[in-house]
Structure formats: C-alpha cells, structure tokens
C-alpha cells in the first residue's frame, strides 16, 4: 500500500516509528474490503478503474516547491490538566454547538483507578474507516493526509459515524450556530458555518495551515499539550513555541496511537505517562 | 378488442364453482362496501399526518426526531429494515410455495404478492426521513457521485433490483387473470369504473391470448422469476445488514447479522401475509376459498422461521456475552439485563415463545389463534429491530462504560422517541392497508387462473377452494 510511504520518511532516523508501524500490514484492510466488495459485485472492470483512480489520488510525495507536507499531531498526555480550553477554542473558531466537541477531552481511568485526561481530535487516519463507507464520496483524504468532509455533497446517512472507531464525527442535528462572514468560503477545509443535516468533524484547521498558522486548539492550549507538525520535515511545535524533532520525541517517549489494532493508522500520536492503556482495555 | 380469446377455452367454465370464484375475485373491484370510504379517509389522514411530521423534521433538523450524536441511528433505520423485511412474505408464499408445488398456496398468492408490492416501496421511503439532507437524495442515483465501496450504495442497488423483480412477479400471474376479468366485465353495465378497469386490463393482457402454448410460456416465465426472486430476497436483506455489520462497533460487527436479517424478514413476512389474508378474507368474504387450513399451514411455515430466529438470537447473545470482551459483552449485558432489557424480553415472550406456544397446541391453533400469533410476531419483530439498531448506535466507543469499572456506569447515549418519528411510523403502517385497498380496487384479489389450474390438477379439496 502506498499509504505506508510517509512512515518510511521518518523511519530512516527514528527507530521509534518502526515500533509504531510494526503492525502495519502490506495491504490495508480497507483495500482488502474494496477488492472483496468489487469482486462480489462482479464489476471487475469498474474495480480496475476504481483502483486506477484511487492510485491516481494517492498523495504525491513531492511537488516542485518541495515535498508535500504530511500533517500530524502529537498529544502529550503527561501535561493535560483537563481544562478543555482547546475544546472551546475549536468551537468558537468553527461556530459549533456546545455538544459538537470536535476536540473532545475525555476523563479516563487508568489501571490503578486514577483519572487522567485525554484530548481526542480526529485521528486523521491513513486508512480512515469513515471514507470508504460513504455512498456519495463526501469523505476524502487530501494529499497532506487530512481526512475531510465535503458538506456540499454529504446526504447525511451517518454511516461514517458508525464506522469511525474514535467517535470523532458530529452530526448537525439542527440549524448550525450562525457565523459572520468568514475569511474563507464554506469548503471542506473551512466548513463554517456548518450545514444542517450533514456530518462535521475536526479538520485540523486545514484552511489555516498554508498560511503558517497552527490549529486553534494547539495555539490555545495553556499547557503545551498539543504539538502540530509535518512528518516530512520531522518537526512539530506546540502553542508555547516549543519545537520537537518528531521521530526522536516519539521514540524517546514511547509514543502510541489510539486503538492501533483497528488498522486505521492514525496520524495523531499520544505520549502516555499515567500507566494508561489507550486501547481502552480494562485488563491491561 | 372484442376478440380476446377466452383463457380457458376448452375447459368447462360455467360450473357454479368457477362462477363463484370469478365473482369473488372481482367483488372488491365492483362493489363498494359501506366501510370503504370511511377507511380510506381515516388511513389517508394518518398518512398525511406522517407527511406533515416529516415536513416539520425537514424544517427543524433530524434532532426533532430524537436523534443525537449519542444515538445516530434509531427508529428510521429499524423501520427501513422492518418494512422491507415484511415484504418477504410475498416471495415466500408465492415463490417458495410455487417451487415446492404446494397447491394450497393458490388462493393466497395474489394477496401475498400485493402485500410485497406495497410494503417494499413503503420500506424504501424510509430512506427519506433517515437522510440528514433528503434534498440531495438524487446523488444516490447519479453515477458520478457513486462510491462503490459503500454498503449503503449496495443496499440501494439490491433493493431497487428487488423492487423491479417484485413488480414483475406481481404482473406476470396477473396477465391471465386480467383476461378473465375483462371477460367478466363484458357483462357489466357500462360505467366509468368498468370502462377504466377494462382499459387497464386490456393493457395488462396485451397480446396474451390464452392458448396452451402461451400459457406454457407464461408459466415458464413465472417459474423463472420465482427462482430468481429467492436469491434476490436473500441478498437484499444480507446487504441491508452490511450497512450495520461493516463497522467495528460491538453489536453491529457480527458475521451472523446477514443470516439473522434474512430469517427475521421471512418470519415477519409470513406473519404479515397471515394478517393481510385474514383481513381480506373477512372484508371481501373469501371464506369459501381461504379456509382455516390455510391459516394453520401459514402458521406452521411462520413458526419454522420463528424457531430459526430464536436459535440465531440465542447463538448471537450467548457467544458475544460469553466472550468477555469489553464491547461485545457490555452490549449483550445491556440487552438482556441492562437498559434495553424490557424491549428485548417483550420480543422474547411475544415474538419468540408465544407464537411457538400457540402453534404447539391444537386447541390454540385456530384461525384466530394464528392471527393473534402473527400480530404478536409483526409487532415484536419491529421491537426486535429497534433492539438490534439502537444499542450499538448509542454505545460510546471512547472511554467505554466497561473500562470505567462497570457495564452500567458511563455515559451511554440514549434515543428518545418523539412525536415526529412516531407519526411517520404510524403513517407507514396505515399506508399498508391503504395501498392494499387501492390495489384490490383495481386487480382481482384472487389469482383465478392459478386456482382453476391447480384445482383441475389437484382437486378443489387440495387447493382449498
Ligand atoms: S478518526 Fe474517525 S473521522 Fe477521523 S479519519 Fe479516522 S475514521 Fe475518519
Ligand atoms: S485542529 Fe482545529 S478543528 Fe481540529 S480540534 Fe483543533 S481546533 Fe478543532
């Protein structure tokens, strides 16, 4: 699977990344599903066509102006105090209802019965569960590795909410919060205001990134929990201005991804430190 | 077009039996009983109420139907499965019984096929309130938008194909009957009603002349569709289950789900056929053709599926509950002893045990006994679909309750029924009798030629006529 190539970019000088991707199989399960589905539908020709189209849509590794950025987020759970400033900052910026917690801070319990906090944005999966299930192709992945929703296409079946293992998707059950004129037009990269009857979720503030701005939650986190960076340049920063070398930081701090066993290959890495188990398995 | 050849030319046709049969088949077409208009009005009002509720929902968002991020699928999805499910009765009674040469089916086939013809589109209509933005539903039929990896799209293809097959399956056996009806109507005093029906029947009959050769070809075609419609019916409900099962959610991600859905559909489908046959028999005085023996046989057919369904339910819950894994066991616990226990046990008693019990004893196995059992099955299987659809859609995937130290702890989402989906569900339920009354207003309620043919082959006793 070509989606694996980004990992190799950092694996060269980061041994920790190897561990992270140890479970990576050569064929993504979504690819398998796609192959099986098309086979059973008996549309071999269409299948080949789709594969070609999919291959064409795979992110390009570089452009004349340098490699295409591969966005990622690193969340240092050791520092999070559960203040939820990130949640509110995100909701203010995107004009969301109170229960639309694109950045949701969960109160978790570790094996010793102690609480800790875990912020959960969209995991920006390399093999997103939400994309293949959409009947009208409203979900897609950008060359920079962001999974986005086209709210002008979404018909609101909510099957993507069923598919996402991280509960990262939020529906617009009623009229959206009214928003003033925005610097960007309503588009997948900046879905403001939200559209009634469609699905929304964290976009890693896609429209702000080309201008060099960090996502709202990252900028506003008073604890410096959230780092945002680019895997190709192997560097990330947090809202306090601290810069890290991603590969070393992940390796040295035993980074993990959330629910690794689901095969979604998230691009959000968690630094544990509370004896927790991100796989949500109480027996650990 | 006065030269339509009498379909059973060469057969004696003026026996009192045949005359009775033909009159009975066309009675709903020609006579307007006193209850007819009041029923039509009441049912139409209910349907309009549902449409009004839907308009309200479109204006105010799906939230008015009780949905939330903590319950993203609920009653509409369960209704979709339920209503498409009951349309299987037609396929079973007509197709399976035809293929097994069960002669007793003959007086039931038209009613069963009409029930399928009516319930399938009603089920499909539930796609509309289910969607967040129904104004974009055209994207489902516009190929540039198709994402072939989506189970919802497979559903859409499968159900549409099945609808087409159901229409053909209703139409083909109607051809010789339309010819007979046309002949019967010749004797009627001319009126608008008669003229309209005559024109309709002429179109349906087309160039079918009723010669033995044509009859043979027609029967061949019906046999072929009967064979085709069975795998189609199986695939529709299997694919319907894929939309749920192709996820990583405990309770949805079950390999048993396709089989489970198919058997539930067959079970509730036969039950609905019992109800429509019983109602038609009473309202249109078909007692001479539809006998208590029909009900007992349908009851046995129904209960065979019912037992299979009970077995599948047991298997699913036992294995998932036994596994002890966080998601699956918590889900089973919620169903058998937790927040979904009441609806689950209602299904178990009313839809699992009671019908078995009724069919087990000769004294309970009467016509009214079978009707009561069927009523229980149809209602209980709707509740069971809610129990299938709602719990996994309300289970949080992050920070699951089990991880918090107890299966009952934690912030499970909840689905709250509101008047909007209840009105829409009532409307859909009312639409079944409404549309059936309209169908029988235009088409013979009994498949006259099939009954006559089978009576000739097997004797009137066997057909029940
Ligand atoms: S976290 Fe969920 S919504 Fe985000 S890309 Fe992964 S599957 Fe899709
Ligand atoms: S990255 Fe942007 S959209 Fe995503 S949670 Fe943070 S503020 Fe919200």
* Overall mean pLDDT of chain B: 88
The two chains with the largest interface, and their residue counts, are: A-B, 57 and 48 residues
Distance between the termini of chain B: 32 Å
Could you tell me the number of beta strands of chain B? 0
CATH topology of chain B: Formate dehydrogenase/DMSO reductase fold
Return the domain count of chain B.
1
Share in helix of chain A: 10-25%
Largest sheet of chain B: none
Rough outline of chain B: globular
The oligomeric state of the chains shown is heterodimer
CATH topological fold name of chain A: Alpha-Beta Plaits
CATH architecture term of chain B: Up-down Bundle
**Total count of domains of chain A:** 1
Task: Give a structural overview.
- The complex is a heterodimer of chains A (284) and B (465).
- Chain A is of the alpha+beta class and 284 residues long.
- Chain A has one domain (3-271): Alpha-Beta Plaits (2-Layer Sandwich).
- Chain A has helices at 5-11, 15-20, 29-41, 44-57, 85-94, 159-163, 216-220, 246-252; strands at 62-63, 66-67, 71-76, 104-109, 115-120, 139-141, 147-149, 169-171, 199-201, 226-230, 235-238, 243-245, 268-271.
- In chain A, the strands form 5 sheets. Chain A has a 5-stranded mixed sheet. In chain A, strands 1-2 form a two-stranded antiparallel ribbon.
- In chain A, a hairpin with a 4-residue loop joins strand 11 (235-238) and strand 12 (243-245).
- Chain A is globular.
- Mean pLDDT of chain B is 88; it is low at 1-14 and 402-411.
- Chain B is mainly α and 465 residues long.
- In chain B, helix 12 crosses helix 13 (326-336).
- Chain B starts with 15 loop residues before the first helix and ends with a helix.
- The radius of gyration of chain B is 24 Å and the shape is globular.
- Chains A and B meet through helix 3, helix 4, strand 4, helix 6 and strand 8 of A and helix 7 of B.
- Residues 122-125, 128-130, 147, 164, 166, 168-169, 201, 264 of chain A line the site of one iron/sulfur cluster (SF4).
